[in-house]
């Protein structure tokens, strides 16, 4: 015997054209996101490259709370907030590039029915956890924000791979192998969850979806049943987020992403998108809310208590990076600064600054120094974790101090003429002075600690195999949240020069402030 749905006369699907239009809009926004990311490179203006992050209200809310400062660049996200209050959770269904990537992966993966709804309150759990942890002094936004996840995956995985096959850079980077695998694994898990249910991440775990879903409860326009329904269940089975309860003729605005699948599936056109100003009840769950609250309070100090692998004071942040506690709260681990670095010197950290420092940028001078004529990392940072300093001002932002290891230096240890570090230094912070050792007089390098800014060019050019004979340590790093780095004293020192002082012993370790 045929069911009512099978016996129903075939009609022209009203949602066909709209679904096609939606898919084109999704692909357009994904393409824009990728193109803006690809344009982040030396020699090109990064204007508007962070527009998606500026539109992300989750970045605005969590970063402002964590840094105790209003994120002015995030005020544009109020446009998305107002639009969500008008049209519902459209950002997830039309704009979000990770959501589009999940849809593309879902078209390839064999997935189960959309009835496998999972734990839909999970996204509210992660949202509360992020906000509470930020208020407690630790930001985990970079681990859960969908835009940061996709941007980091592009920066650490897809860009190096495509660059390798294009012959631009080498893909063999042992220093970042662990971080790259972790970034790839995170993305693959999110995409693979689509095997359990369509848009599993969006419906159950995404904190941005939780924030927009909460706002969508109060939206003016909503999908709802507007006629007699035969309860065939076609719309409910077609909904990728489990927003429809056809038995009770309800559409949950917090779950609906406006994908139009229900309009396409309904043979009787009883579902409509119309004004419904009455807010729907918000059901976050008291128990889940309390667990999320407690988890956020515990997670903040726990992340900071994880053992740090300091690498003997070798944690070098980009020039213009704000003080470390604020930096960890402001950085969303998007990887844009690493993509922008023309020397490839900026690499993702592992545990050099604790668990909450994972994927944050650190300079590895042996791979690439900080280019004197580049301030792109500050320009592309969407949250101000790296200040957007003028080019000249950036050259005065000290990130560390170079130290000569005399036991490895060719001039000191082997009495061989070598002036590579002296010739490489763009700040005249290294001088070769004649020193007599074991009866041999030879020019040997000395570092002027006052003039050195820790750019690492000397370390990257050192001809010694293995670890360089001159290395940059995070000693005397100058990191400010506000104010200028260029001072009359520094300017006078750079213009007139000063006799170099004795090098700090290579075993000296000083934690950065």
Mean pLDDT reading: 85
**Quaternary status of these chains?**
single chain
What is the helical fraction, as a range of percent? Answer: 40-55%
Percent of sequence in beta strands: 5-15%
Class of secondary structure makeup: mainly alpha
The main sheet comes to: 2 strands, antiparallel
Count of beta strands: 10
Uncertain stretches: 1-12, 170-175, 498-513
Estimated radius of gyration: 27 Å
Termini separation (Å)? 76 Å
Gross geometry: elongated
Side by side, the strands of the main sheet go 1-4
Counting H and I runs of at least 4 residues, what is the number of helices? 24
Description of the structure:
It is a single chain. α8 crosses α13, α8 crosses α16 and α10 crosses α11 (177-192). This protein has 513 residues and is mainly alpha-helical. It has helices spanning 4-7, 16-38, 51-54, 57-67, 77-87, 90-95, 97-108, 122-136, 141-144, 146-165, 177-192, 200-204, 207-216, 234-238, 261-265, 286-305, 324-330, 336-340, 376-380, 391-394, 410-413, 420-424, 457-461, 488-496, and strands at 221-225, 244-245, 250-251, 271-275, 346-348, 361-363, 401-404, 430-437, 440-447, 470-473. 47% of the residues are buried. The longest helix is centred in the first third of the chain and has 23 residues, at 16-38. It has a two-stranded antiparallel sheet with strand order 1-4. A two-stranded antiparallel ribbon has the order 2-3. It has a two-stranded antiparallel ribbon with strand order 5-6. The protein is built from 24 helices and ten strands.
């Amino acid at each position: 015997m045929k069911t009512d749905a099978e016996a129903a006369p075939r009609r022209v699907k009203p949602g066909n054209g709209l679904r096609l239009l939606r898919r084109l809009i999704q692909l357009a926004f994904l393409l824009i996101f990728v193109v803006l990311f690809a344009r982040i490179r030396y020699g090109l203006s990064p204007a508007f490259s962070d527009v998606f992050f500026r539109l992300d209200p989750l970045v605005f809310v969590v970063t402002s709370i964590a840094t105790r400062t209003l994120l002015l660049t995030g005020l544009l996200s109020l446009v998305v907030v107002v639009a969500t209050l008008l049209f519902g959770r459209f950002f997830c269904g039309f704009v979000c590039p990770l959501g589009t990537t999940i849809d593309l992966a879902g078209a390839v993966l064999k997935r189960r029915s959309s009835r496998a709804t999972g734990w839909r309150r999970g996204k509210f759990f992660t949202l509360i956890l992020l906000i509470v942890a930020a208020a407690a002094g630790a930001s985990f936004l970079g681990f859960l924000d969908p835009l940061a996840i996709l941007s980091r995956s592009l920066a650490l995985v897809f860009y190096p791979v495509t660059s390798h096959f294009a012959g631009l850079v080498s893909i063999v980077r042992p220093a970042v192998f662990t971080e790259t695998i972790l970034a790839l694994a995170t993305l693959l898990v999110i995409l693979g969850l689509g095997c359990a249910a369509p848009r599993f991440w969006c419906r159950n775990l995404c904190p941005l979806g939780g924030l927009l879903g909460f706002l969508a409860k109060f939206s003016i326009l909503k999908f709802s049943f507007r006629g007699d329904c035969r309860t065939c269940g076609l719309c409910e089975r077609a909904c990728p987020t489990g927003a429809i309860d056809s038995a009770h003729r309800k559409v949950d605005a917090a779950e609906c992403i406006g994908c139009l699948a229900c309009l396409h599936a309904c043979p009787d056109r009883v579902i409509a998108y119309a004004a419904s100003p009455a807010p729907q009840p918000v059901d976050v769950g008291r128990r889940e809310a309390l667990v999320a609250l407690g988890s956020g309070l515990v997670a903040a100090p726990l992340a900071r208590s994880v053992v740090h692998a300091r690498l003997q004071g070798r944690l070098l942040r980009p020039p213009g990076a704000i003080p470390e506690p604020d930096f960890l709260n402001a950085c969303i681990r998007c990887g844009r600064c690493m993509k922008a670095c023309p020397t490839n010197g900026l690499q993702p950290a592992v545990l050099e600054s604790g668990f909450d420092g994972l994927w944050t940028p650190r300079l590895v001078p042996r791979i690439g120094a900080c280019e004197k004529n580049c301030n792109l990392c500050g320009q592309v940072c969407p949250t101000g974790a790296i200040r957007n300093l003028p080019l000249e001002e950036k050259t005065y932002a000290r990130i560390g101090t170079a130290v000569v290891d005399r036991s490895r230096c060719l001039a000191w240890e082997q009495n061989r003429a070598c002036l590579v570090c002296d010739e490489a230094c763009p700040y005249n912070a290294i001088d070769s002075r004649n020193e007599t050792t074991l009866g041999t007089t030879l020019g040997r390098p000395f570092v002027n600690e006052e003039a050195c800014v820790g750019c690492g060019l000397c370390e990257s050019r050192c001809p010694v195999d293995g670890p360089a004979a001159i290395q940059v340590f995070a000693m005397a790093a100058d990191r400010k949240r506000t104010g200028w780095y260029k001072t009359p004293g520094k300017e006078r020192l750079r213009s007139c020069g000063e006799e170099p002082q004795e090098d700090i012993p290579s075993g000296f370790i000083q934690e950065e402030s």
